[in-house]
Please model this.
Amino acid sequence: MIRKFDFLVIGSGVAGMSYALRVAESGKGRVALVCKTNIEEANTAKAQGGVASVTNLKVDNFQKHITDTLIAGDYISDRRAVEQVVKGAPEGIRRLVEWGVNFDRKEDGEFDLHREGGHSEFRILHHADDTGFEIQRGLIEAVKNHPAITLLEHHFAVEIITQHHLGVEVTRRTPDIECFGAYVLDPDTRKIDTILSRVTVLATGGIGAVYSTTTNPNIATGDGIAMAYRAKATVKDMEFVQFHPTALFHHGETHPAYLITEAMRGYGGILRLPNGEEFMQKYDRRLSLAPRDIVARAIDKEMKIHGLDHVCLDVTHKPAEETRHHFPNIYAKCLSIGIDITRQYIPVAPCAHYLCGGIKVDLDACSSIKRLYAVGECACTGLHGGNRLASNSLIEAVVYAEAAAKHSLSHLEEYTFNEQVPEWNDEGTMTNEEKVLIAQDVKEVGQIMSNYVGIVRSNLRLKRAWTRLDLLYEETEELFKRVKATPDICELRNMINVGYLITRQALERKESRGLHYTIDYPKHAYDQN
Model:
């Protein structure tokens, strides 16, 4: 089946929905919004802390936010991207509010701002401790009410379409690669449809599910990055995987692990060993408010030194009623497993959380492939550099969705539908035995990545990961060629692709920088482990 849309948006988090709404409001064409599960399930909904934006001009300004971002990024951020996001943030907040998103306010009507690690001022807008969920709720309502947007839930994008599918040999040196849409699996017919588009936008989110423990939902398998890479797009900075230092440690909850927001440390939470001893003073003068990469490595080292599977976050010294008011969902979650955070320590451990790299894009969110844009976590804008500053990701998604919308709308008349694209060849069968193989391989990818490409790395570990991923790649590609495409085999292909990219680019970086820490090129003596 062949379908046509002016705009094809793959992914339904804050980035994808912001873009879809913006172009739909222009009245210039029909929009397809593809979600591989339902529209409610996205990394956006898991973001507890908030959105960073300069709003309190009495004490804060753009330069402070720019400086904080550059410091956290270990000075390898693209300053133009940093300035674009920081200066565009207030307008992005205005659009979110206009689309129905509610942020907490004080009695005088001003935003109730939090402060998080790495920020020099209080500039985090939030909605209690479920900000991402509130943003997702507001945008979903707006998307469902817009007549120009066709929502395709439980549809899985298998490949983006380029000249390669027209029989042209495409390599990484091919000039003017062009995207004509995507092949998308329809859950009802179990057939792969050809969706032709004038503009295609990848907003597929992160890659956390390639690790054995992550704060991301199971769907975060790096699909957009893998599809773009296979289409010969430029992919950059994949070695910079952020491990959130404080996920709730609870046996059995690994995908997703429950996130204990950074705002809790901004609120005054103190990191301790289970015996009550503080340890951050050994690693950074900012103590528990140091940037995430430093805190995650410190926790990782303390766990190795003492043979622990977790450390603790302590807010017992704060007023109980205030804690319950600011963090109602965390309070309820911990209480459900027998922990009263107003009286007991919260067991926490680092786990995979956010990717700073991805599909390389310019200031207009254009990838290296013509007519293909990337926004949100799957894109590498250059904002984050070596490490993302807390709460910069949601606002980056909104600002770059706006940039992508402006650019694509201004060039829309130049793009036409390519009627020569062939339909997908869906020959093949799938047996129960093969599904068992896929499930086992998914588990193996997670173990390889967590054991060898985690918070602390070495050339030996990375080479071991490369060797094992290469074997899995060969086996999976052989399987993919002889079976009917299903979401599970497609996700496995994408996870292996993403794991390979992280590992390869980690091997290529001959230094410890930002989130990439290797014992072969140690940055600080105390970090070696």
